Structure formats: C-alpha cells, structure tokens
Amino acid sequence: KYRRRRTDKQVLSYKANRIYKTYKSPINPICPITPITPKNKKTMIHQISAEHLTIERIGEIIYKGYKIELSDDARHRIVRCREYLDKKIAETTTPVYGVTTGFGSLCNVSVGADQLAQLQINLMMSHACGVGDRVPNDIVKIMMFLKIQSLSYGYSGCKLDTVERLIDFFNNDIYPVVYMQGSLGASGDLVPLAHMSLPLVGLGEVEYKGKIMSGAQILKSKRWKPIQLGSKEGLALLNGTQNMSAFAVWALLKGMRLCDWADKIAAMSLDAYYGLLSPFTKAVHVVRPHKGQLSTAAHMLELLEGSEIAQKSKSYVQDPYSFRCIPQVHGAAKDTLEYVKSVIDTEVNSATDNPTVCPDEDLIISAGNFHGEPIALPMDFLSIGLSELANISERRIYKLVSGTRGLPSFLVANPGVNSGFMITQYTAASVVSLNKSLATPSSVDSIPSSQGQEDHVSMGANAAIKLYKIVLNVERVLAIELFNAAQALDFRRPLKSSPAIEAIYEEYRKVVPFIVNDEVMYPHIQHSIEFLRK
Length: 534
Fold this sequence. Notes:
- The chain has 534 residues and is mostly helical.
- It has helices at residues 2-5, 8-21, 55-63, 72-91, 116-127, 137-151, 160-171, 190-197, 215-222, 233-238, 242-272, 282-285, 291-303, 308-311, 321-324, 326-348, 373-400, 422-438, 460-490, 499-508, 522-533, and strands at residues 45-48, 67-70, 131-134, 174-176, 179-181, 205-208, 211-214, 356-358, 363-365.
- The strands form four sheets. Strands 4-6-7 form a three-stranded antiparallel beta sheet. The chain has a two-stranded parallel ribbon with strand order 1-2.
- The longest helix has 31 residues, at 242-272.
C-alpha cells in the first residue's frame, strides 16, 4: 500500500537509490589468456547436467582447473536420444537430413546404410578448412566444454562414448588445434568445430603439454581407440554455435574485469589530474537512473573516499568530459555488457545443432538453431561498448600528458631533453583507432554459400574474432592509462590519494617504476598489461 501511494518521481528515486547504495564491484573471475594450474591440488569436479549454467561458473570451471563428468541424468538423456534415433532410422524409409542424406545443398542426395559412418568422417575432413591464427587454448577449452554441455541435453543423437571422449580431452588438457577463420556463423561453426572434432577419430592435430602432435599420436599415447562415429554424429559435432559462444564467454569474463579496472584506473587519473568529485554526486544520477551510470558513480566515490588530493580546494568548476562523464560512458559499457551477458547466458544453455532430435515428440526436425544471428548482433554491440572504455581512456591519457593543471609536459621532470610519456599517448591513439575499425559490425554482412541453400549467414564468427581483438586492445589502452596515471600521481606528492587508490599504486610500483629520464618504455607497458591480468 505504501509503495502504491508514492509518486512516480519518488519510486524512480527509490529504485535509483537502491542501486546507488548497494553498489558492489563486479565478479572478477580469473581470466588470463591461457589456462592456469591451480595452487589447490585437490581435484574439483563439475557434473554436466541440465541445470542452468552461468557465465561466471564457466569461468570458474575453465580457469580453476575443474574436471568434468556426466551426471546420471545427462547420461540417460544422451543414451535415450541415441536409442530413439537408431530405432527411427531402422523403421523409416523417409530421408532424414544429415542422417541418411548429404549436407547443405546435397540434402536431396540419399546415402545408403552401409555408408552412414563414412558420411560422418567425410563431413569432418571436408569441413576442416580453417585458416589464420590458432584459437587460444583457453577458448578451445571453453568450446569443448560448451559442445559437451549442448550434447548432454539429449537432443543431438550423439553416442555416449563420443561425448565421453570429448570429456577425456577436456580433463587431460588436450587442446585440438583450431583456426580462427573459416566459419560463417550460420550452419553453426562448421569449420572450427570440424578442427575441434578431428582428433576424436585420430585425425587433425592437438597441443598436449606444450607440444603439437597428430590426432593419431595423442590417441596412441593415451591408449584410446578412435571413435567410430554413428549416423548423424558428425553433424551433431560440427553444427552448433560453440565457437562463437566460446569467444563470447571469454570476452564477457574479460569484459567484467576490464569494466572494474576502467573505474579504478579512471579514479587514479582523476585524482592525478586534480579532478572534481562533484560529477559523481548521488543527486545527479538518481534523476537519470541508468543502472550502469548509478553503479559507476557510486564506485568512483567509493574508490576516492579519503583522498587528500580530492579534498584540496580547486579554482575551476568543470572537468573535461573524459573525467566528468565517466559514470555515463563507463556505465553505458557496463549496461551493454549485462545485456550481452543475458543473451549468451541463454545460448550456452541451449542445444544448437541440426537436425533437432526430440524423442518425447517423436520428431526429427531440420531447422535453424545453429544460426548465429541471436548472438552475432550482441557480440557486435559488445565490441562497440567495450571500445568506448578505450576511447575515453585515451582521452584521459592525453589530458595527463598535456602539461596542464600543474603537471609537467609529458609527465617527465625535464621535458625537452626527455620526451617522457609523449609516445604512450600515440600508441593508445593508434590502438583506439584500430578498435574503431574493428567495431564496424560483422552481422550486417551476409554472403550466400552451399549453392544458395545457405543463403543468409550471420558472420557471427567474424564478430567473435573482432570482439576478441577489441578486448585485448581495451586491456592495452587501460594499461597505458595506468602507466600514465601512476606517473602523474607521483608529481602530486606529498599529497596522497585515497587508501584504495594508494593500495593499487603500491602494488603497481612493485612491477613498474617511476620514470625519471627517458628509457625503453615497451617493457613497462607489457608489465602494466600483465598487472591487469593478475
């Protein structure tokens, strides 16, 4: 009754106040570029089941060394679906796409029962046409995990031993060699998933304990027999969005960390620039209560609480937008990330191969769950959102080296003979400019394939590759801003920033020193990047 009596303005203020007061730093799952060996030697087990899987849980499984196993329910689902499919093939004379027919535009070409196994092997071999750089091992591991998860729902018709062999690869840190380019993101991620699947039958290549070996060699070394694929299995393995989704999960895990770092680094830059705290006042943001904006403003005040520099009287009444509008810009990036996270959350809890086998409905339906459009558009959106974190960061770097507000030109005590931090801003500007090109959406393009049978494609895999590059570029720019912000902060001594910022500064100075005179700078930038990953 009390809530109903409130005016619209009071309700708006109430909701905003709750977000503002209950700000918590985002969850920061460990997310380096390559998998780590956990310090805790106790084996941790995750059971594959139909229970809802979160992005954070995936990060925990991948980066904290979990082993996985099928739950009893998942085993039952897989076996039941396979038994239904075998029975259906035996009983029907009607062609079933990908099961008793060819693929793509060859869907009208029937295949004899004695050739069904060869059909699946041929599918893998002919579709493994990847080019370009290798997909990083941790993303390959996410890809394998998501494929296992998708097959476990019991709508794909895979045999139990096929899924269990994928689990063997996962648990033994055997990484199939997968290449970045080749997928159209429409019939699923055919090319990368073909490369992922080849070693199951003794083909392709893997990386194991830092060495590249053939699929046949890894099976021999583990005394495993090649999987004998049944009907439809090749299609179940190759159809699906697990390549795109793996990149998206990786980007979200990194993005959550980078959003948090962006606030912390911006707070250090703000204090070093003698910036004002008034733009983060609660009253400003409750009248425009976007969730990300509210939480960012609260976070900035939390980070700078107790700063001697912030309490110092200022003669000016405004800061440049790159400082004053941190809540609005960082907040919008966070809201974008949360939206994309909600979409990818749905995707990783889905069965996305084709045809869909539905034992309960007695149906085998060729449809389009493999199409990447539902996640291609959000990945393009996330690329744009995260790019803005780097864009505004570079502007703060520019202000720090500009020789204003009492800071020396290019943040060096003796400019002229020393160029100082001049070129760090050049590098940041170069990276930001590249991001602007990479942020052009891939999902607006489509090139027909398979003789026109697959006449609209999502290009979601290209969106994923560009998102991957953008995330790494954002990390680099933020690392350069931290390099500059710490240097600028030293010129404000003996005044101190807040305890939170000083704690970051002290840890950072253990790996990157104050720069007195010109020296080789690229190692310091690399150490700054590594600092953000810890």
